[in-house]
Design goal:
Blueprint (H helix, E strand, L loop, with lengths): L6 H13 L4 H11 L2 H10 L4 H10 L2 H10 L8 H5 L5 H14 L1 H24 L9 H23 L19 H7 L13 H30 L4 H10 L1 H4 L1 H18 L6 H36 L2
Helix pairs in contact: 1-3, 2-4, 4-5, 7-8, 8-9, 9-11, 9-15, 11-14, 11-15, 12-15, 14-15
């Protein structure tokens, strides 16, 4: 009792002990080790489904682990495939060499993580950009286009690799309900529990699908531009061929609009809460079509116009 500062914390811990009597020893031990009663009560109230397993895992790793868990107020991620990979060098040395840095500075660890992720996507974007080598673009234009593609890939990868981003909020077993029986009975209304919309796994899957569709259209358009440039015809005829492919170059926008409409239709009939993905589909279309026309189509047209004017 002397480690509990306020009645709210005492009430939450008492309710937790009544509902989970088998975890009494772990709760009591965590309270004695950490001395953070409010943090313990808030963590178990915030994560009623996984909090007890995380607390037991922290207790097996000592006082510092319990203090860190209650201080961060975050779920524990148990790596499956990752644990198998980091069991071997050089991944073992790299991973456990950076673990103390991640504990000491979470912001620095996240910055390093996304810096490596951006570097990896930039390498992939440069590999995809090698398709445009036949377009004859300057290095600056090609690099700018690859940076736009790398940023889009980084965003999608960041959403996909986060372990708890698409999961719904855990239900609290001890909700506080305010009920007015006279008013409810007089009007004949049934009280409903309000829930906040959260991004679910269907939203993440639709986000990834929209991205890969737009990336495929983008690569197809680059291939078509390279094909037009390699043809042994004059500059004026190449300009006409590019004008003929305008609908293809705008296909990303059309697919983005179709994806947005489908997302809104699915949301309206109750198939997932994917309103955010409706905007993401159009956003990907705008990004890829803008990158295609600004960094690829426009420079090629400019070059062909100058060549056609120089011809007799």
């Amino acid at each position: 009792m002397k480690r509990i500062d306020d009645l709210g914390t005492l009430r939450d811990l008492a309710q937790t002990l009544r509902a989970h009597g088998e975890a009494t020893a772990n709760i009591y031990s965590a309270l004695l080790l950490s001395g953070n009663a409010s943090g313990l009560a808030h963590y178990l109230t915030r994560y009623p489904e996984t909090g007890f397993n995380d607390l037991a895992f922290a207790l097996r790793n000592g006082r510092s682990a319990v203090e860190l868990l209650l201080q961060q107020q975050q779920r524990v991620y148990y790596g499956g495939f990752r644990s198998k990979v980091v069991a071997y060098d050089p991944f073992y040395s790299f991973f456990y060499g950076l673990t103390p840095t991640a504990v000491a500075s979470r912001g620095g660890a996240l910055s390093l993580k996304y810096a490596f992720l951006l570097l990896a996507t930039l390498c992939i974007a440069r590999a995809v950009g090698s398709i445009t080598s036949a377009l004859g673009h300057r290095f600056g234009m090609r690099f700018a286009a690859d940076c736009v593609l790398a940023l889009a890939m980084t965003f999608v990868a960041s959403v996909a690799v986060e372990p708890f981003l698409g999961l719904p909020n855990q239900l609290n077993e001890f909700p506080i309900r305010f009920q007015i029986p006279n008013l409810a009975g007089a009007t004949g209304l049934k009280l409903q529990q309000l829930t906040r919309p959260y991004m679910n796994q269907l939203s993440i899957i639709s986000l990834i699908i929209f991205f890969f569709i737009q990336a495929a259209i983008y690569i197809w358009c680059l291939t078509k531009l390279a094909e037009i440039r390699r043809q042994p015809i004059g500059a004026r005829m190449k300009l006409k061929l590019i004008e003929n492919e305008d609908l293809l170059f705008d296909a990303g926008l059309y697919v983005g609009f179709v994806g947005s409409v489908l997302s809104l239709i699915l949301m309206s009939i109750g198939v997932g809460k994917i309103s955010m993905m409706a905007y993401a589909s159009t956003s990907f279309g705008i990004i890829f079509v803008s990158a295609l026309k600004i960094f690829h189509v426009r420079p090629m047209r400019r070059k062909l116009i100058l060549e056609s004017e120089a011809q007799p």
